[in-house]
Specification:
The protein is mostly beta strands. It contains nine helices and 33 strands. The radius of gyration is 25 Å and the shape is globular.
Length: 677
């Protein structure tokens, strides 16, 4: 609490000192859609990615002085584009404008348009000084308040199961001085969570904060408070979001960013304590310590009703009912460790060591598929990782171990033999006995006992045509949820992109996921059968003059499990209009949905409030409409509101249990005020 009080004090003092000097940034939702595709069901926090892009816009990377690590912060660049840029700079000297990027191998017009907002072509290196008057005068601040209300009450509110009110409330502050100082806090209250009283010691359900110093002499990063850690390829330690298979078919390599502040809303997957990274010539050394309470399901109590052990760790972050509240902060996780990296020309090697300790022992489940999951109080992971770039070939990988010697390995290869062709290959092997807590490798699930191989391709067939594809083949060497025996699966995607002009673009995508699941046939010995989900999507975007932007999509889905076969389809039209006379932008969607069941659901990215993300499943026989208004009240103050409604024609009740809505309509209202100063 002392640290959080200090953060609030600094915030109040800072608001009084800062002059209003920030230029409003463009909204980032559309830029994130291609990165989020294929990761709809993962527990990722897109807020962090959106904020990183916004900070880069405010503090663009100086092309003439940037290192490869600096350029890796831009998610649209691959390692070859970065290497070719650095090679060009070394051979020709400084770059004086974006026009020079067009002659660099791999830098096509689309890539340049994406990354240009995050680049600066300054020819003199500016080293800002950390003086109080400069911090007060030139810092950039962002204060955001959001409320979301379901307009139809759910069953949990009607019968009193949910102990708090219906609204979702979110308050967030982030202050940034150049790329040197960062300070911020986040407070969040989910629908149904009670305020204060006997349940919330801090008044609200979730409160997070940080104070960070970066790029100060040999000190690369120092974070006090809440932070994220990313090392290697995510086998031993990766506490933040990580994207899996999606429309970016060749972007399989993890670009580890080491230690950085946590500013998201994921309530359990972060570190709380202190972490630092030091750069000493070619060596980079990191150390961290964290201790914070996490949610858990209590398994056994002693005679004084104190918890002795827990049966599982909970990750939902929801504390609405008596049962959910009883699991809040029931365990304590202590994490400590370090990382060492050595860079020599095109070779990078590193080592990571991390130790996790739980205050209460985690008891092993008696379910067969959970037999090899972590149990006990302590886990130690170590790993070695490397990255080597030679001309148009990049080889990278990581091997990780737990304290018992069980291992997990990833080996990847990327190649760009021709400017128009890019290929990626990755193989992984995670032993079923390998234990971990925070990891996020590129894999189907990243769970125990997974082996697989992934091949991704990207080919610029013509100046207007691009083909992307991937094939991932994998197997599980131990039973898993809904598969009571070792099983196999494969995923594939094929997408053609067409850029007809600045005003018109389209893509056609086919995607298929096939895996073995428990058979639904009633036999004495239950076996496995193939479950298959397929979809075909046609999407077009067209701009009419400077004010109108329209996009249309039709998507059809198929589902097969044994003799069961279902289909579904979604058709929607998006429209965006920017007023000339007023600083007001409207975005609307109308969707027609017809799927046989939730099995043929179709996920669709929706435009939303800044730093709020919506990728809901469209299912059933229904329609979906939303209207988003984005109004700049002043150059520094923006008000946003979104009204969304789904109307079902095949049911009289939506969802079930505490989340049930009595009736065929589900609607919500979202409002947000954002102050940049």
């Amino acid at each position: 609490m002392g640290f959080l009080r200090a953060l609030l004090t600094i915030l109040i003092l800072g608001i009084g000192l800062i002059l209003r000097a920030q230029v409003p940034t463009e909204e980032l939702e559309n830029e994130l859609e291609s990165l989020a595709e294929g990761n709809e069901e993962n527990e990722t926090d897109l807020i962090q990615l959106a904020e990183n892009l916004q900070i880069l816009q405010q503090n663009p990377i100086e092309v003439n002085f940037a290192s490869s690590e600096d350029l890796e912060q831009i998610p649209y660049l691959n390692i070859f584009q970065i290497a070719n840029l650095l090679r060009y700079r070394e051979e020709t000297g400084m770059l004086y404008g974006a026009f020079e990027l067009t002659v660099i191998k791999g830098w096509d017009q689309a890539t340049i348009a994406q990354v240009l907002p995050y680049l600066s072509f300054a020819t003199q290196k500016v080293v800002p000084e950390i003086k109080l008057k400069n911090v007060a005068r030139y810092s950039q601040h962002n204060l955001l308040a959001r409320s979301i209300l379901d307009l139809q009450p759910r069953q949990g509110f009607k019968d009193g199961s949910y102990k708090g009110p219906r609204g979702n409330h979110y308050l967030r502050y982030r202050g940034q001085y150049q790329d040197l100082i960062s300070i911020g806090f986040t407070a969040q209250q989910d629908p149904g969570e009670p305020w204060g009283g006997p349940y919330q010691k801090l008044g609200v359900d979730f409160l997070s904060g940080h104070l960070a110093l970066s790029n100060y002499g040999a000190l690369k990063n120092l974070v006090v408070g809440d932070y994220q850690v990313e090392f290697g390829q995510g086998l031993a330690l990766w506490s933040s979001l990580a994207f899996g298979k999606g429309a970016e078919t060749v972007g399989i390599k993890r670009f580890a960013r080491g230690v950085r502040p946590f500013t998201g809303a994921e309530e359990n997957r972060f570190m709380r304590g202190v972490a630092s990274t030091w750069q000493i010539q070619d060596w980079e050394v990191s150390a961290f310590y964290s201790r914070h309470a996490i949610d858990a399901n209590v398994d056994e109590l002693d005679t004084s009703l104190q918890a002795l052990n827990v049966s599982s760790l909970r990750t939902t972050g929801l504390h609405r009912t008596a049962g959910e509240l009883s699991g809040k902060d029931q365990n304590t996780l202590q994490t400590m460790g370090g990382n060492v990296n050595f860079n020599y020309q095109q070779l990078k090697v590193g080592a990571t060591l991390v130790n996790y300790q739980l205050e209460l022992s985690l008891q092993a489940s008696d379910r067969v598929y959970q037999k090899f999951r972590f149990s006990g109080k302590e886990v130690t992971n170590s790993s070695l990782h490397f990255n080597y770039l030679f001309l148009d070939l990049n080889i990278f990988g990581e091997i990780a171990f737990d304290a018992q010697g069980h291992s997990a390995q990833i080996l990847g290869l990327q190649s760009q033999p021709a400017e128009a062709f890019h290929a990626s290959l990755l193989v992984r092997n995670l032993a079923k006995e390998y234990r971990f807590i925070y990891n996020a490798p590129f894999a189907e699930t990243g769970a125990n006992g997974e082996r697989g191989a992934y091949l991704g391709l990207q080919w610029q067939l013509h100046k207007d045509w691009q083909w992307r594809a991937y094939l991932d083949v994998y197997e599980f060497t131990w039973p898993r949820f809904r598969a009571d025996a070792p099983s196999r699966g494969n995923d594939l995607l094929s997408q053609f992109n067409w850029q007809g002009s600045r005003w018109l673009s389209a893509y056609l995508r086919f995607r298929q996921e096939t895996r073995q699941m428990n058979s639904q046939q009633e036999t004495r010995i239950q076996g496995l059968e193939w479950e298959q989900r397929s979809s075909l999507r046609l999407h077009a975007v067209y701009t009419l003059a400077s004010q109108w932007r329209l996009s249309s999509r039709y998507e059809h889905s198929w589902y097969h499990l044994g003799s069961q076969a279902e289909t579904g389809s979604v058709l929607f039209q998006d429209l965006r209009y920017q007023f000339n006379r007023w600083p007001l932008q409207l975005t609307a969607r109308y969707a027609l949905i017809n799927t046989a069941s939730f099995n043929t659901r179709i996920y669709a990215y929706e435009n939303d409030l800044t730093y709020a993300f919506s990728i809901p499943p469209y299912y059933g026989e229904s329609t979906r409409f939303y209207l988003l208004a984005d109004w700049d009240l002043t150059k520094d103050l923006t008000f946003q509101a979104k009204y969304a409604i789904t109307r079902f024609f095949d049911r009289a009740e939506i969802s079930s249990g505490n989340q049930a809505i009595n009736g065929p309509v589900n609607s919500e209202l979202r409002m947000q005020l954002r102050w940049r100063f």
